[in-house]
C-alpha cells in the first residue's frame, strides 16, 4: 500500500506538480462521470463496465487482444496502474459540474472522461477547462462541444453534424434504391442540448436538400406521457420520423406508437435510448425494425476481428454485448490510457500534448472508423457513422450499402401485420 508521503506526491502530480513520471506502485487516477442513478442508470452501468474493461486491459489484469491500442501495461510509466474514480451526474448538468470539481480537487484525478449526456458533458468540461485538466469525451455527440475553442477538451466520437448529414444521404440513397419518395419528415426530439441542436441541424438540412417537415415536436426530457405528441405525428402522416430520445423516452414512445396504431414507413433514430441494451430487453419484438445511426455493430466483426475478441471479454465480464454507447466509452478510456502512457507523465499539460499527437490507425480500434486523430478543436477527424436496423432482435448494419450485412426491411410493417 502506498505511504502517506507517496499519496501526497501522487496528488501533487495529478495537479501538474512534482515528478514527471510515476513509480510502479503509483496510481493514475482518472475521473469518470456517468449517470449511475436516475432514469439513465442502466445506461450508466454499461458505460461503467466498458470503462472498467479498458482499464483492466491497460493494467494487464486481463490479456489485451493483439493490435488493440489501450496502453497495455503502461510501459512508459513503469507499470503504474490506472484507477478509475467514478462520479454520478444523475442526468443533471449542475451535478455533473459539481462532480467534476470534486474529482479534480478532492480525488486529485489527472484527467476526466464522460459524460454521455451532451448537456452534462458541456458543464463538466467547463470545470475541467477552468482547472486545466484534460477532458476526453467518448460518447456525447452535440456538435457545439468542439466549437467552444477549449484547450483541454477532446472528443473521439463523431458528432451530430456528421450523423444528421448521414441521415439525409441515406434517405436519398434509399429513394434511388426503392423508387419511393421519403421527402416528408416528422421531427420528434427531446429538449436538452442534444435534442435541440439535432433539431436545428435537421431543419437546416431539410431546407438544403428539399425535404418537407410536416411536424416538429420538441418534447420535455424525461416526460411520462406522449399521447398528444404521437397523435400530432400521426395526423401529420410523415413518411419518416427522425427521433432523438434517451432510454426512458425511447421506450415510452414505442409503447405509445403501438397503443395509437401509428406506424410510419421508417423510424430513423438518433442512437442513444434506441440502442441501449434495455431497449430490446423491455420491448422485445415491439422494438423490431427501428433504424438508427450508430458507431459500432457486432456484425462488423467479419471486417475487424478485434470487435468480436473485445466484445467476448465484455460479455464475459458484464453479461451483455457492447452497444454503440458502451463501445464508445471503452474507446474513450483506451485512447486516454494510451495518451497518458505515451506522455510518460501524469502532468495534465503532458497528457494534453500526447492527446494532441494521437494518431491511432483503424487496425487499433474496435470502432468502424478510419482511426483517431484530433484536429485543432479537439474533434477526432477520422470518425464515421453507420446505420443499423433491428432485425430478429439484433442490430444489423444496413448502411452504407457497401458494408451492409442485411437488406433493410422497408417499409416498417404496421403493428397488426407483424
Automatic annotation (TrEMBL):
InterPro entries: BCAA_transport, Leu-bd, Peripla_BP_I. Keywords: Amino-acid transport, Signal, Transport. Residues 1-24 form the signal peptide. Residues 27-391 form the Leucine-binding protein domain. The keyword Nucleotidyltransferase does not apply. Pfam families: Peripla_BP_6. CDD domains: PBP1_ABC_ligand_binding-like. The keyword Signal applies. It comes from the Bacteria. GO terms for biological process: amino acid transport. Belongs to the leucine-binding protein family. This is Branched-chain amino acid ABC transporter substrate-binding protein. It comes from Azospirillum cavernae.
Amino acid at each position: 500500500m502506498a505511504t502517506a508521503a507517496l499519496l501526497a506526491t501522487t496528488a501533487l502530480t495529478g495537479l501538474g506538480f512534482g515528478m514527471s513520471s510515476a513509480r510502479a506502485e503509483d496510481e493514475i487516477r482518472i475521473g469518470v462521470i456517468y449517470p449511475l442513478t436516475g432514469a439513465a442508470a442502466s445506461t450508466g452501468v454499461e458505460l461503467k463496465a466498458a470503462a472498467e474493461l479498458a482499464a483492466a486491459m491497460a493494467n494487464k489484469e486481463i490479456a489485451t487482444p493483439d493490435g488493440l491500442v489501450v496502453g497495455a501495461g503502461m510501459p512508459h510509466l513503469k507499470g503504474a496502474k490506472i484507477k478509475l474514480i467514478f462520479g454520478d451526474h444523475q442526468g443533471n448538468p449542475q451535478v455533473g459540474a459539481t462532480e467534476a470539481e470534486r474529482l479534480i480537487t478532492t480525488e486529485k484525478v489527472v484527467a476526466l472522461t464522460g459524460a454521455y449526456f451532451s448537456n452534462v458533458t458541456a458543464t463538466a468540461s467547463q470545470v475541467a477547462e477552468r482547472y486545466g485538466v484534460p477532458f476526453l469525451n467518448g460518447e456525447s455527440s452535440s456538435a457545439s462541444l468542439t466549437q467552444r475553442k477549449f484547450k483541454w477538451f477532446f472528443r473521439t466520437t463523431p458528432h451530430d453534424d456528421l450523423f444528421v448529414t448521414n441521415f439525409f444521404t441515406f434517405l436519398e440513397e434509399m429513394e434511388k434504391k426503392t423508387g419511393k419518395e421519403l421527402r416528408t419528415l416528422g421531427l420528434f426530439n427531446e429538449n436538452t442540448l442534444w435534442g435541440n441542436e439535432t433539431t436545428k441541424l435537421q431543419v437546416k438540412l431539410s431546407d438544403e436538400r428539399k425535404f418537407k417537415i410536416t411536424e416538429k415536436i420538441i418534447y420535455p426530457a424525461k416526460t411520462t406521457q406522449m399521447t398528444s405528441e404521437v397523435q400530432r405525428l400521426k395526423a401529420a402522416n410523415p413518411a419518416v420520423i427522425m427521433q432523438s430520445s434517451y432510454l426512458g423516452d425511447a421506450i415510452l414512445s414505442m409503447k405509445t406508437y403501438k397503443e395509437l396504431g401509428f406506424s410510419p414507413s421508417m423510424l430513423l433514430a438518433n442512437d442513444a435510448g434506441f440502442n441501449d441494451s434495455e431497449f430490446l430487453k423491455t420491448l422485445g419484438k415491439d422494438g423490431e425494425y427501428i433504424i438508427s445511426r450508430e458507431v459500432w455493430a457486432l456484425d462488423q466483426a467479419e471486417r475487424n476481428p478485434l470487435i468480436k475478441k473485445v466484445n467476448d471479454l465484455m460479455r464475459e465480464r458484464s453479461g451483455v454485448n457492447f452497444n454503440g454507447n458502451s463501445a464508445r466509452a471503452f474507446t474513450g478510456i483506451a485512447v486516454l490510457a494510451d495518451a497518458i502512457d505515451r506522455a510518460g507523465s501524469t502532468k495534465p499539460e503532458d497528457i494534453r500534448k500526447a492527446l494532441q499527437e494521437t494518431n491511432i490507425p483503424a487496425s487499433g480500434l474496435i470502432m468502424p472508423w478510419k482511426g483517431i486523430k484530433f484536429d485543432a478543436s479537439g474533434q477526432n477527424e477520422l470518425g464515421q457513422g453507420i446505420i443499423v436496423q433491428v432485425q430478429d432482435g439484433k442490430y444489423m448494419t444496413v448502411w452504407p450499402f457497401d458494408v451492409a450485412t442485411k437488406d433493410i426491411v422497408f417499409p416498417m410493417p404496421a403493428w397488426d401485420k407483424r
